[in-house]
Structures
1.
Amino acid sequence: MGILARLTVRQQQQKVREDAILDATRVMLAKKGYDLMTVDEVAAEAGIAKASLYKHFSSKESLAAAVMIHLLDQAIAFLESLPPELAPVDKMRGLLRWALDLRLDGGLPLLPSTSSTLQSNLLANRDYVKRILALNERMLDLVKAAQAQGVLDPGLPPDVVVFSLYARTCDPAVEYLQMSGRYTHQQVTEYLVKVAFAGLQGTR
Amino acid sequence: MGILARLTVRQQQQKVREDAILDATRVMLAKKGYDLMTVDEVAAEAGIAKASLYKHFSSKESLAAAVMIHLLDQAIAFLESLPPELAPVDKMRGLLRWALDLRLDGGLPLLPSTSSTLQSNLLANRDYVKRILALNERMLDLVKAAQAQGVLDPGLPPDVVVFSLYARTCDPAVEYLQMSGRYTHQQVTEYLVKVAFAGLQGTR
DNA sequence: GTCTATACCATGATAGAC
DNA sequence: GTCTATCATGGTATAGAC
């Protein structure tokens, strides 16, 4: 029992440390992006030495991959947590709002849209791709349902809708509006969600 | 007269070379972004040695700035080239289409939305900021006119509309859709323009 | 056994010699 | 104009402290 208990404690400590590292990575990724983020900074933010970090994660890439995978899991979990009776389009709205709020809190790294070194490596990562596909599947179902109900434009191919929604989560307009300093976080989120669904024209 | 003529020819040659350098920079910027772009690559693409490039441009930053300034000039020129009788909203649509087409041709660097080293430096560049302000002014006028005509949502603050439109020019959905390989350049452009103005709901 | 300090190596921006 | 050096940065590997 002593051994088991100690092992567990040690593993818990490990987990706590790794969580701290991943958290620091997420924040730095969100702030600077993959290429500009340095492992030194992450280590400093996490309060450990760079070499110690390499005991937990084998490379900068694997660090970033772990963060992205965790975020995708959270996104999927968020979708599942929504009440089933909620309209598909409102689930989509909810996901976008969730992502934007996360980002405005400085916590969501832009998905690897920008041609970074990450992109190619992530696409070679089975665990990452698995989750991407899982999320895509759920989203496509939501889109088709919403189109069938006539609340989303049926003239748009479902993947165009899904990709556009993903794109909105990393919309640079967030930064522009934040920089202008004229709007609260909530306002930014609401405007962007509105623009995403109703467009610049609005509902006429 | 000999000297003058030769000077002119030399200057022309210089200009040709600098244009080649700027063109190479634009392409590399579009492909890899500022941070991942190396001056070596630009020099190689332009067909000269790296050190020679530094005879023309004092730094990597000044290279990028020159490209961005030129692009902003082109954007403003594009707006001015549109027939005055064209509806404001159609001018906006035209600008977005122009930018997306340029990007799909591999020619438009994502504006410095991503927190890159560039961003801060560009904002310190008078020539750049001057053009940004000039473009903003024209765009705000168009937005207000379109809102007055009721073809753009009057409930949206004009700057939200302008920033959203800028954001669409660097919409990562472009890359996603291109990667999927299901759509032609033209289709991508049309879908994105449609989504930008009518939203995912479409006009109902 | 896990962290710290330091060493190593490639890359990439810039400067100077021809 | 090119070629070659310099210098800083940053990812990674090792060696020793607790």
Note: DSSP finds ten helices and no strands in chain B.
2.
Amino acid sequence: MHNQTLLQFIKSHPIGASLTRDESEPYSFLKLVAKEYKAHSIVSRQGEVDTRIFIVQSGWACLQRGLQNGDRQIIDTPLRGDIIGVRAVDGPSIATLSAISDLSLFEIPRRALASATLLHRPLGNMLTRAIARQNSILTEHLMNTGRRNAMSRTAHFLLEMEERLSAYGLASGGRYECPLTQQELADILGLTPVHVNRTLGELRKLEMISFKAGWVEVLSRKKLVALAGFDKEYLRLM
Amino acid sequence: MHNQTLLQFIKSHPIGASLTRDESEPYSFLKLVAKEYKAHSIVSRQGEVDTRIFIVQSGWACLQRGLQNGDRQIIDTPLRGDIIGVRAVDGPSIATLSAISDLSLFEIPRRALASATLLHRPLGNMLTRAIARQNSILTEHLMNTGRRNAMSRTAHFLLEMEERLSAYGLASGGRYECPLTQQELADILGLTPVHVNRTLGELRKLEMISFKAGWVEVLSRKKLVALAGFDKEYLRLM
DNA sequence: ACTTTTCGTTAACATAGGTTAACTTACCAA
DNA sequence: TTGGTAAGTTAACCTATGTTAACGAAAAGT
């Protein structure tokens, strides 16, 4: 799988299914192969100019933004199939992109992609859909930090991850591998690690979900969905 | 101004300046005229299917999403020039769009715009940039609710509004008209109205910013920018 | 002009979540 | 295998923000 070209990957993408004609061949970046990053390495730094667009082939990425006081907020944890870095403005990046687990990324020069999408209908379409979806995910994240308490916020996030991983068969039976530390979870949820720990313990005690040794397991989807007010509509791909 | 066509409006748009050739003429929606909405009226409801895309000509819009428990989060307050509703998926809307002040909106069928952007380079470009900017705004909003306290959160938001309005000359000398109630401000910032009131009072007492009778006035930009950690880079249009 | 909402303001009190710190457990590198 | 660092856990205590409620001042409707 890890010498698969971008074209092959896109063909297997839930959004990109329509991209099967050989009209898609002329773009050289489609022959690209993913680049590998070690866990905890940094791909692109906040404040530096970077004209690449990334597509996750495998692993957990981390898109984060730091504040002056040293605090940080994790904007998203892009997973397989997610597109990152569509800023469309030449200027310093607004966030840092790093690898949480070992990560493999397709890297496409922004200009190449931009001109290709203008000429190639399905590709442009796919990109627009992907950005729009990122927008929905961000919106729901904002709902979480703005208006949900620690319990339902955490529950909501863990359900979202399950749903997003499921699209690629990376979660099954309510179980999935999750390399996040409680510190990272805290920076996603806008909480402290200590409180994340309390919350996770509580969720476990209520037999809703457990998160141990790098694995998440949904124990009672019904209770969890009710607590989180989770509705997966916002994650729809097509 | 209020029988201006969409084409005329786009030509005056900071992003859309390049759209001056008459190749832009063939699309009938460019001849559209904005539709007027009264303050507090609802344009599009969360959960209902709506295939329009909106561009704000004037006024303050409100994009919000409700939770089961009755709480709501305001995602954004789109202003002149902002593009709303690019979901790119046929399905129920994720948020409600309403008018805070009197509002005038260009309304474009999603399909018409999508096909036009594929054929017309500058238009597609403009749209991509607009979405990417919405993304930056959302990201910064998430920073606010996730990692800033009430004071800097409020300061940050009020500075953002000033910057966004300035792009159209709708703010000058640090002063701008702002029709938001404290309740609405609370739903933007993820606070309670009571606490917004305290915070606003505090900011006033510290001679940083005042918000009274529908007008915001920056009293000390320096102190305010420091408190908020405000860097307008994320709002850059070109 | 009068009445009725809505909005802003303030105070007293309550609590979810933050802070610090100590300890344990798991992981990693030599 | 072992020692060291990073991660998870728990407890005691603290504080920023939420809650409720009362009142005055604007707006809005008749």
Note: Chain B touches chain A through 47 residues (CB under 8 Å).
